Amino acid sequence: MKLFKFLFIVLLVTSLSVTLFSQEKKDNKPTAEELIDPPLSKSTGRVMIGGKLVTYSATAGYLILREENGKPRGKIFFTYYQKDGVVDPSTRPITYTFNGGPGSASVWLHMGGLGPKRIEMTEFGGPTKPPYRVIDNEYSWLDETDLIFIDPVMTGYSRPADGVEKKEFTGFVEDIESVGQFIYLATSRFERWNSPKFLAGESYGTTRATGLSGHLQDRYGMYLNGIVLISSVLNFQTTRFAKGNDFPYMLFVPTYAAIAWYHKEAGTDYKEIKPFLAEVEKFVMGEYSSALMRGDRLSAAETQSVVDKLNKFTGIDKDYIQRANLRIDIGRFVKQLRRDDGKTVGRLDGRFTGIDYDDAGENYEFDPSNIAITGPFSMAINDYVRRTLKYTNDIPYEVLGNRVQPWNYSNVQNQYLNTSETLRQAMHKNRDLKVLICNGYYDLATPYFATDYTVNHMYLDPSLRDNISQTFYEAGHMMYIHLPSMQQMKKDVAVFYQNTLKK
């Protein structure tokens, strides 16, 4: 009997403990410490833009993403530049800016073309001799708009909260929701709801920006004035090389041709690139796309005609093209174009060249255009954050890496992600939304003709087609590292902001 009572008490205590623990876990209430936001770093600066002095304040640090009960989910690092002397926020636009990857911090746009300081590069866009210099950016967008540079979770200094798994942020839907929550929070905290609002994204950042165009409207009622898409990828079917998907083989050819023209491997009769590319595009839209659609039903004469023209436009050997079934893969192109003189060309920027261990491989060992920028930009952000922004954090600043992997595309299983449809819906709902797309001719990461194809297949209402404009530069993925392109891009962006905000 005593043993029975003892066991009963033990079971009762255990049951109560489990119940209390479950209740505590269910409530998941934040502690007093968790409710405190970390301090933000404040600094000031000045920069000459277009011959005019712009003074500004800078705010750097974390905004905490929270559950509705206040429990932290994640902390996003940002840098916010605000022009001095603006009294009425409705007269001053704000632009939320990010890069891509996925897995890239905002360092490239921040320290490359948009922010008030930039890393010094050669006019061509290559690195100077280390140690590198951070200089005033006379082509900053800060004269046109305030800027917030966002590092999504697992990039820069941004991380999940303690006890939260990174998978809650590392996926298309998860990323849209967390960056969208940050934008909502920053707009509220900094009292910018009455400001004209823009997004600016690069590469996968354009995927994010177009996804956000719908999410911000539908979730928060936040309607945008404009979006700047830099090196755009919206329809992933246009860039994914795979057997059975002929779109990339067609849509990359104009960029192959542009790079071959630059290296004098093709189009040598043309002094300027645009007339040459017009001929290439006509071939792709006509004879080449028809040939790929017909597959192995092409006659020997038809096959030879395509081989001859691909050789003429891309500089790739005829025998190589024929053996590849008329389809030139990006990895093969960057190795093959200048194989005879032992050089590879860049994927991010085909103007750059590299040297491998040997010349026999199918693909290059590294992207020479990526290697050229990684060192300077990594130095720039790590030095600038500490010495100029007065922000200190000893965890590694993740410039570009795989810490976001595996990336979750569960929303489009067995499909290709295509956010151009989200953008179309957003533009049909908000007929004042304007979009500027900036393209680099030598960009193999997000080729310009694939972007053009995507835009032409959005099926916007005819009354809205002029709401999208495109510009083109004789540079690569990060066209702003090339000084003449950055200068022209600054002019184009200024016109876009001014026209978008015109009453």
Count of DSSP helices?
14
**What is the CA–CA distance across the termini?**
88 Å
Looking at the overall shape, the CATH architecture of the largest domain is: 3-Layer(aba) Sandwich
Strand content: 15-25%
Give the topology string: H per helix, E per strand.
HEEEEHEEEEHEHEHHHHHHEEHHEHEH
| Helical content (DSSP H or I, runs of 4+) | 25-40%
CATH class descriptor name of the largest domain: Alpha Beta
Number of strands: 14
Described by strand count, sense and barrel closure, the largest sheet is: 10 strands, mixed
Give the number of domains: 2
Class based on secondary structure composition and strand pairing: alpha/beta
Write down the Rg.
26 Å
Shape: globular
Say what the CATH topology of the largest domain is: Rossmann fold
Mean pLDDT: 94
Low-confidence stretches: 18-25
CATH superfamily (homologous) name of the largest domain = Alpha/Beta hydrolase fold, catalytic domain
Walkthrough of the structure:
The protein has helices spanning 2-27, 107-114, 172-189, 204-220, 247-251, 253-262, 273-294, 300-314, 318-323, 330-336, 368-387, 420-429, 448-456, 483-501, and strands at 41-49, 52-66, 72-83, 94-98, 117-119, 134-136, 146-151, 159-160, 197-203, 226-232, 344-345, 353-354, 434-440, 468-473. With 503 residues, it is α/β, with parallel strands linked by helices. It folds into 2 domains: 41-237 and 374-501, 3-Layer(aba) Sandwich (Rossmann fold); 243-349, no CATH class. Strands 1, 2, 3, 4, 7, 8, 9, 10, 13 and 14 form a 10-stranded mixed beta sheet that branches. It has a two-stranded antiparallel ribbon with strand order 5-6. Strand 2 and strand 3 form a beta hairpin. The longest helix is centred in the N-terminal third of the chain and has 26 residues, at 2-27. It is globular, with a radius of gyration of 26 Å. Mean pLDDT is 94; it is low at 18-25.
